[in-house]
Structure formats: C-alpha cells, structure tokens
C-alpha cells in the first residue's frame, strides 16, 4: 500500500517546469551532460560507479544544474564520504532496529504545493538509551535513498522538519560535536538531494547552544535554509501550506503521514534496485 505514495516512473509536468527554470534541464543539456559526465568518469581509474545507470548520473547532474565537472566533483565527495560513513559502505536490508525508532521518523504521503518531499523527525520519540545516535543514520539511510529513485524529488528536493518537543538534557548530552558533524556530512555533503529548507519547531530555550554549535559546521549557503519557529507553528505555514500538514502542525491534511515502518515495505520491494543504485566506491590507492 505504501508504494502508491512514491513516484518512481516519469516526471510530473510541474517538475518539468521546475527542472527547466531552476536547473536548465533541456533535452540538449541532458544529452550533453550525460555524455560529458560519462567521459569524465571513464578517465578516472580509481573509482567504480554505475556509469550506465542514467538515473544515478542524472541525480548528480540535476543537483549540480547540469555542470558535468561540478557533478564529477560531487560524485568524488560522495564516494569519499561513503567510505568514511561506515553505515553507507553497502546497502543491506535490515529492519531489526525499526522498533527502537517507532514514531520518530515519518514523511508526508503527498508532496507540498511546490512538489517537495517533506520529512519529519520527532525527538520526543527518541530514547538514546535504547536507540544509539549512530543507529539513526543506519535506519534512515535506506528510505532516504528511496527518495533518490524519484525523478520529481531529484528536481524539486525536500524539506525537513525537526520537532524538538520532548527534547531533554539526555538528548543534549548525546548530541556531541562529532555527531553533529557526522549528521551534516550525511545530510548536506553526502546526499545529492536538493535541500529546500530545514524547519525546527517546538524548540526549547536550551536548544540554542546546539544550534550555535551546528552553525559552525554549516556551509554559508545552507545557514539561510534553517528556520527556528519555536511554538509559533503559524510561522511554519509561510513555508509549507497548512493543507499539506497534519493537524499537530496546524494543518488540515487527514492521515497525512507515512511512518518509517511502512516505508520499509517499499524499501524491501526495491531492495535489489537500491543495491545496484548504491554500488559505487572509490578504490584504495
């Protein structure tokens, strides 16, 4: 049932307009971009990438607005981080840790009015004594890559909501500088998905030091994408229409969320596709 909320085939008319306007995606640029990126990658002897998988290549070309050289550099950064982020070395379907994250992660079933995916994390549902902070990355890695299979998501990008309701000092002590840097490396430097906004809601006063620390690791262009709304949920509606949001965020959408557990059923079905999609590495020299 969850599969019906994903768009793996084709591109919507809305996304085609966005691709043309924001990314310069024309038939000529697609043809030339793919040809040049393949040529550049074939010259590199220390990498193994799915060079014939055009959806994989298009993911990087779209992210880099069809600049083949920039796309190649992004691929190298991706491969280097893939090696250092040990959870990303290879894809293996594993749902054994899902119960530890019950209620913590979800996504909206429908895209927002600008065609963007909206993902939600609720810290209230996270018990660091049960779910190790680095296991969070293992658990979310498969579903995030599922979004990379969607052409519309490659084009329109995603929005992330971090709900800090229930944040306590145990969480604060768990969120170390090293962990913050790992999360930023994963979300910003590693994933070739266009970030369209990071919205923090229900954040208490003691969240400010965490945010201040986080900003130190953020590239300048990403700092403007982060908005802290506190308990002023109506402020969130300036960026995401209430019709798209669940009631808990002042929205009017019914049965709006798709829990991570249900998404994993789609991950299971596309396990082989994801394995091939993620078969790439930078070789030791």
UniProtKB/TrEMBL annotation:
Domain of life: Eukaryota
InterPro entries named in the record: CRAL-TRIO_dom (IPR001251), CRAL-TRIO_dom_sf (IPR036865), CRAL/TRIO_N_dom_sf (IPR036273)
One Gene Ontology cellular component annotation held by this UniProt entry: membrane
GO molecular function annotation: phosphatidylinositol bisphosphate binding
Protein source organism: Glossina pallidipes (Tsetse fly)
PROSITE patterns registered for this protein in UniProt: CRAL_TRIO (PS50191)
The CRAL-TRIO domain, residue ranges: 93-257
Regions crossing the membrane: none
Protein name: CRAL-TRIO domain-containing protein
């Amino acid at each position: 049932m969850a599969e019906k909320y994903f768009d793996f085939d084709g591109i919507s008319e809305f996304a085609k307009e966005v691709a043309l306007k924001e990314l310069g995606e024309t038939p000529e640029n697609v043809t030339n971009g793919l040809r040049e990126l393949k040529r550049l990658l074939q010259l590199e002897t220390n990498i193994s990438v799915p060079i014939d998988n055009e959806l994989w290549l298009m993911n990087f070309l779209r992210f880099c607005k069809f600049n083949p050289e920039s796309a190649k550099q992004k691929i190298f950064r991706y491969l280097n981080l893939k090696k250092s982020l040990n959870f990303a070395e290879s894809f293996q379907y594993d749902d054994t840790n899902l119960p530890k994250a019950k209620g913590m992660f979800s996504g909206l079933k429908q895209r927002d009015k600008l065609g963007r995916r909206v993902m939600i994390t609720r810290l209230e549902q996270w018990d660091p004594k049960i779910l190790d902070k680095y296991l969070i990355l293992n658990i979310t890695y498969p579903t995030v890559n599922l979004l990379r299979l969607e052409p519309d998501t490659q084009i329109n990008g995603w929005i992330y909501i971090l709900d800090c309701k229930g944040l306590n000092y145990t969480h604060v002590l768990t969120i170390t500088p090293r962990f913050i840097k790992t999360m930023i490396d994963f979300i910003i430097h590693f994933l070739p998905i266009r970030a369209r906004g990071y919205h923090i809601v229900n954040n208490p006063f003691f969240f400010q030091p965490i945010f201040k620390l986080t900003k130190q690791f953020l590239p300048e262009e990403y700092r403007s994408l982060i908005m802290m709304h506190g308990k002023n949920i109506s402020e969130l509606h300036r960026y995401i229409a209430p019709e798209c949001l669940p009631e808990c965020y002042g929205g009017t959408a019914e049965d709006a969320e798709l829990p991570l557990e249900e998404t994993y059923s789609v991950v299971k079905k596309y396990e082989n596709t994801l394995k091939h999609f993620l078969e790439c590495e930078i070789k030791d020299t």
